[in-house]
Amino acid sequence: MLERYVDAVRQWRAESHDANVGLLVLVDGDEHGVARRRQQLAQKLKESKQEPIAPSDPVAVIVPTWHIETWIAWLCGHRPIDEQTRYKEDDEDGRAVARKIEHGEYSPQRAIGAWAPPATDEEAHVPSLADARGEVRRLGV
């Protein structure tokens, strides 16, 4: 996404004459996290001589950290969870979650069904998900 971000913003700006058109950007945080990913995206715009995204722009930058599997596990009820563990098959600590996702016990569809309301301790365990909720509101969703 980092490489395609500039083109996506350029295209959105070309089509933004419609107030109902926004831009949803989704990029894994990996070991970088939300703030660093946003800095990287802003730097890409700067390097391409484009204006930065304004706070009032309907552009939502969503950064699941480490990756989307973290959110799927959390929304499907996996506890404890954190944003430092890779919930993939190649990580010893994350292997149990990866298997549950692989076998359909945890799924994107189930996670979507559990999107609202947020768990009371969500921000402490998956701050990138709590941040994403605010970003989605920028799009009026």
Description:
With 141 residues, this protein is mainly alpha-helical. It is built from seven helices and two strands, in the order H-E-H-E-H-H-H-H-H. The protein has helices at residues 5-15, 33-47, 68-75, 95-102, 108-113, 122-125, 127-138; strands spanning 23-26, 59-62. The protein has a two-stranded parallel ribbon with strand order 1-2. Helix 2 links the parallel strand 1 (23-26) and strand 2 (59-62). It is globular, with a radius of gyration of 16 Å. The model has no long low-confidence stretch (mean pLDDT 94).
Descriptive labels:
single chain; 141 residues; mainly alpha
Element order, helices and strands? HEHEHHHHH
Q: Specify the structural class.
A: mainly alpha
Helix coverage percent of residues? Answer: 40-55%
Distance between the termini: 22 Å
Provide the residue-averaged pLDDT. Answer: 94
Q: What kind of sheet is the major sheet?
A: 2 strands, parallel
Poorly predicted ranges: none
Total strands: 2
Oligomer: single chain
Q: What's the overall geometry? A: globular
**What is the percentage of strand-forming residues?**
5-15%
Strand order in the largest sheet:
1-2
Number of helix segments? 7
Rg, rounded, reads 16 Å
